[in-house]
Design a protein that fits this description.
mainly alpha; about 150 residues; about 65% helix
Length: about 150
């Protein structure tokens, strides 16, 4: 739950960094860029911990899909409430297809013991004790043991 909360806060800042300047089109571009970068710094202060914490439980692709759905929810609210732009039906259909990706990514997790954290993630206690995970171990944990037929 901490991951979702941190990603949501992060996405609020990100959305303002990327799109907030659209209400201030008379401002010089350099000011819009500078303000956007300052907002983006705050966004990263939430996003980086969110992914660090989240990766103890989720895979990187799962985190990415989760972040995309949170982004869409935040963006829809931003469009309607801040920019005063309507969300049209075709936008909602497109967003729905992205949300369907969540069902695919989370519903068909083929890792053994999928409820467990990714195998390549060490616990904070192990990190404090100096335990390391070598690149070969990471590759074994992440790469499939048998060829995957993508077609």
């Amino acid at each position: 739950m901490r991951t979702v909360i941190l990603l949501t806060i992060s996405n609020v800042f990100m959305t303002f960094a990327w799109y907030g300047h659209l209400k201030f089109k008379d401002s010089p571009l350099w000011i819009a860029i500078l303000v956007s970068w300052l907002i983006a710094f705050v966004e990263y202060c939430f996003q980086v911990p969110a992914n660090r914490i989240g990766h103890l439980r989720f895979t990187a692709p799962q985190l990415k899909v989760m972040q995309e759905v949170i982004t869409l929810v935040v963006f829809c609210a931003f469009c309607v409430l801040y920019l005063r732009e309507p969300i049209r039906w075709n936008y909602m259909v497109g967003f729905g297809l992205i949300v369907a990706a969540v069902a695919v990514v989370f519903g068909f997790d083929t890792r053994p013991n999928a409820a467990q954290p990714p195998e390549h993630v060490s616990s904070p206690a192990a990190e404090e004790g100096g335990a390391t995970v070598d690149a070969a171990s990471r590759a074994e944990a992440v790469l499939p043991s048998e060829p995957v037929d993508l077609l």
